[in-house]
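Self-study notes.
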Amino acid sequence: MHDIRLIRDNPNGFDAALARRGLAPLSSKIIEIDTLRRAKITAAETALADRNAASKQIGAAKSQGLKDEFERLRTLVADKKNEIGILEVQAKEEDERLQALLGTIPNLPHEEVPEGTNEDDNVEIHIWGTPVELGFTPKEHYELPATKGGMDFETAAKLSGSRFVIMSGAVARLHRALAQFMIDTHTTENGLTEVNTPVLVRDEAMHGTGQLPKFAEDSYQTTNGWWLIPTSEVTLTNLVSDQILDEESLPRRYTAHSLCFRSEAGSAGRDTSGMLRQHQFEKVEMVSVTKPEDSLAELDRMTDCAQKILEKLELPYRTVVLCTGDMGFGARKTHDIEVWLPGQSAYREISSCSVCGDFQARRMNTRFKRAGEKKPEFVHTLNGSGLAVGRCLIAVLENGQQEDGSVSLPKILHPWLGGKTHITAEGKMA
């Protein structure tokens, strides 16, 4: 959510920031609604003052026997009461109009974010590892002999429709091991607190992190109104909603392994084969809550946590800063980490780490109080994948594939696999 006072004070700056996202100016419309809202509030306050003054005069008029004045004042009080009620309703309506409009406007990009219109304008800032020359034509994950029996898209489609998969045997075990390895690394090495949260949330939680109203069509809603989370960013961030935190408790760093659900209505025709884009998937999420002055450094820290997971798995990757035209709705600055997939001969996104500034905090009403200060300030929030488990599975399978159809597994995972080192061409863990 945006600070209406900043828009009033610097409407041209607000519009200029929106223009960097390719959006038309909105400050004049916002200020128009805000002016009407404030006028109704002022008129209601004036009417209340008039009513209170008249109420005080009624007793004196009655005691002095001023019948006409008494009746005039009594009528005035009744009229002012009705007027106040109407003005308060009108002020509430204008406020709802204002909040509805502000709720649809994306966050303003940080001045460090490069200009651009799409992913072609993103800027590479880091690269690690070198894609291995396999010496044979690599296959995609769902084409590998080792995974043929462990990924069942046909039965999943019978059960649930397209973009679902049933994993079994060695593939299911590897998928589980990856999630456990990630969560263990984040808790034991990266200082994150593990949290197990619900996957069903109320409107308020989805609105707090910016999924509503903008992305309602990309989300699943139950018949009783709950929403299935698109990522545990929703629940982890809302752990601090409607709170005033102590400065000493910041930063707060959370992680969770959860099921995630996305209808992805706008993704028709993309990545229709395999596990790359699913309606149900698992992700290890990271969320940080910080003081404003610490949030950019926290973005670098969070990005490094995600990168280190890939390095431990010996998976080549690159990190890019998203340009203004490719950033997500709630982000001020975003780092995307893209892992190398030999089957596609391309880098594909496996993590997105974003700093949101006070954008989510305003929607959630989450503040903190500095030591010795009376007035609380809004916190800054960040979120990032650490990592998408299914996509990490894809990367491990494709980068570890052997010419004989087997898959060699990263050494770091062996303890989570009971000492097993590879998946045979027949799909067995060995």
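Second protein, same conventions, sequence then structure:
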Amino acid sequence: MGIQIINGGFLTTIQDMGRYGYQETGMSVSGVMDTRAASLANILVGNDTNEAVIEITMMGPTMKFTEDEIIAVTGGDLGAKIDGKPVERYRAVLVKAGQTLSFMGMYGGSRAYIAFAGGLDIPVVMGSRSTNLKSRVGGYEGRKLGTGDEIAFRAPASWLPHMAERVYGLPSYGAKEWTLRVVMGPQDDCFTDKGINTFLNSTYTISNEYDRMGCRMDGPVIEHVTDGNIISDGIAFGAIQVPTEGKPIIMMADRQTTGGYTKMQGYTDAVIIAEGIHMLNPLIFDKIRGVANGVYVAPRTRIITNDDKIVRPEQLRVARRMIRDYNTRGHSIAQTVERSESVDRGEINYIQPYKENAAIHIDTFHDYEPCILAKYLSEIPCFRDEMTPEFLESHGLTDLMKVVRGVPPLHCPYVPQNSLVREFVGGSCYEY
């Protein structure tokens, strides 16, 4: 079986690294609050770093093991014990069937993580096992864990190689003060010089308004030029919203996808990579011109068919999207093609005119790519039925399909894991 929850604690949820790709629909990313601690827990028990863990807040749960399993407890010191005996954090530990894991209180830090070798038997919902509490999506029935809940292990282990060496040095969670690194923007011009100076040189304390969505800070008021309202735009983890009242709010894992308050965010002494289709637009790029380099990444190679027809890069991108959207977003071929036409119009109007702002241009076409596309397109049900001559002709895809159908399929194991093609067919060593 796995574990039985005897007491759910204050706030105990299932989380992984988050639910990406759905913010455009209003679905929050969610995921663990402390990515480093959760990743280390998984590494210690031999899991992928994105494997689901149990996140514990302040007062931990009590759970009984009904099967032998190797676990690792990381994050803050919440007094973890097995049958009343202290558990060493940041170490792989074998728990026997019948034993009970409990937490006694907060001794340092407010959140801890439990990783289970082989993972928990939690369904993947929209690409993630994370619990979104507000939407009641993912995790264990979309809610926090409570008394009587039972969770099975997917592939439990009672032995792992080099068990004695599966240990990591204990980090400190006891500091009373922390210095936060900040990058001004993207609405820094909405604050007065006095307000910016106040923000960068003041001490703020964590208020009682602190949860997985955000952390409101108490301290000196940050002065705006007018007020703190803007047209809503996207919110990243760690963004600092400053409403009209002037008290900053640090946005956390369960943050809303967009917000209408001015923001400051980031790190002053770090290399920042900003990705987005509009980054080269002068409205954005002119603000960083001289201190940043633009990179334009897109397929640029044209394919010439046997009958001297030309397949443009835009058509190649449609084929890429067919595979990705069908496998990860549930879109039909027709839906992808129709969306692509809108995307292409937007690129012509809002991206291509500014691509010369980029100092570096990268052609993402691969010589072997048509062979990869041939394999994965053919595996889409009803592909040949939907790709009728009439449909292809009406959407300008006839020549592309001639190429795809005229080459031998190439199986994915031959594609490097760091290839950009993996973004569309899966199996990348990077997280998208």
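Instructor comment on the second fold: Residues 58 and 110 are 5 Å apart (CA to CA).
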